[in-house]
């Protein structure tokens, strides 16, 4: 919980902040990127290529249905993106894939990356 009562328990602030960034950029820039956490608790160790994993969490931040397109860099050819917890996969080509979102839907993807098992 946040120590400030005006913020505490209001996780929607994060989504609203990202939405404001998208509006500010005119949808021309990445508003949310990635979080690298392989060195948490061990600053001397770097992940090997076989330990690298890519997970993408996305939320349709609107009341209506929408389609989102994603680009994951440095991925070549055709691959299958796993939608975790939904028993389905999505085809990707050269790191690009898209998915459908209902109102306020959230999806978690496991995206294949070069060198990972």
Key terms for this structure?
single chain; 117 residues; mainly beta; Immunoglobulin-like; 4-stranded antiparallel sheet
Describe this structure as you would to a colleague.
The protein is mainly β and 117 residues long. The protein folds into 2 domains: 1-33, no CATH class; 35-111, Golgi alpha-mannosidase II (Immunoglobulin-like, Sandwich). 12% of the residues lie in helices and 31% in strands. It has 1 helix and 6 strands, in the order αββββββ. The strands form 2 sheets. A 4-stranded antiparallel β-sheet has the order 1-6-3-4, with no helix packed on it. A hairpin with a 4-residue loop joins strand 3 and strand 4. The longest helix has 14 residues, at 12-25. The relative contact order is 0.20.
Overview in brief:
This protein is mainly beta and 117 residues long.
Low-confidence stretches: none
How many domains make up the coordinates?
2
The number of helical runs is: 1
Helix residue percentage: 10-25%
Mean pLDDT: 78
Compute the number of strand runs: 6
Give the amount of beta strand, in percent.
Answer: 25-35%
Strand order of the largest sheet: 1-6-3-4
Structural class: mainly beta
Task: Produce the secondary structure layout.
Layout: H1 12-25, E1 54-59, E2 66-71, E3 78-83, E4 88-93, E5 96-101, E6 106-111
Antiparallel strand pairs: 1-6, 2-5, 3-4, 3-6
């Amino acid at each position: 919980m946040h120590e400030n009562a005006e913020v505490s328990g209001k996780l929607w602030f994060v989504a609203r902040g990202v939405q404001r960034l998208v509006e500010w950029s005119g949808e021309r820039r990445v508003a949310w990127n990635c979080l690298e956490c392989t060195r948490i608790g061990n600053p001397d160790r770097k992940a090997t290529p076989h330990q690298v994993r890519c997970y993408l969490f996305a939320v349709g931040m609107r009341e209506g249905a929408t389609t989102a397109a994603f680009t994951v860099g440095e991925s070549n050819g055709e691959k299958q993106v796993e939608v975790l917890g939904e028993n389905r996969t999505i085809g990707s080509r050269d790191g690009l894939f898209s998915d459908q979102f209902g109102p306020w839907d959230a999806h978690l993807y496991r995206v294949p990356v070069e060198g990972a098992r």
